[in-house]
Amino acid sequence: MTAAERREGITAEIVARTGITEPLIERLVREFYAKVRADAVLAPIFEARIEDWEPHVEQMCAFWSSVALMSGRYQGTPMARHLPMPVDADHFDRWLGLFEITAREVCPPEAAAHFLELARRIAASLELGIAGAQGVLLGSGERFRRKAAGDIR
């Protein structure tokens, strides 16, 4: 069995188990980013970095297709894109909260559960990577919190 055939089999199993399709991914991504753009905490971070939202949304559709369906559509480097962002555990919690609300609104339960499991792993990985880039080594269960100006902890 070739790698492509194996990927197709995995994708077919995921689709059968969860009901996730490319149109569902697009709806989830578009509705999620509408919430992000309206969020008082996350919107300024995204707006400072994204001038044209349509290419970003299309790229995120490819990302979630690759992650959720193993489609191989996304060819980027998410960690490198997130390392310079001024975010910490609070931002990731906010992001996950909006993502969970959107997934539960848009997706059937099996699909929402699949997306949420992946989103939690992605957020944890990005948070760990950003902490490391800031010289912070997190222990098991620890979260990355940026120091406020004047904080001597």
TrEMBL record:
GO terms for molecular function: heme binding; metal ion binding; oxygen binding. It holds the Pfam family Bac_globin. It comes from the Bacteria. Keywords: Heme, Iron, Metal-binding, Transport. InterPro entries: Globin-like_sf, Globin/Proto, Hemoglobin_trunc. This is Hemoglobin. The lineage of its organism: Bacteria, Pseudomonadati, Pseudomonadota, Alphaproteobacteria, Hyphomicrobiales.
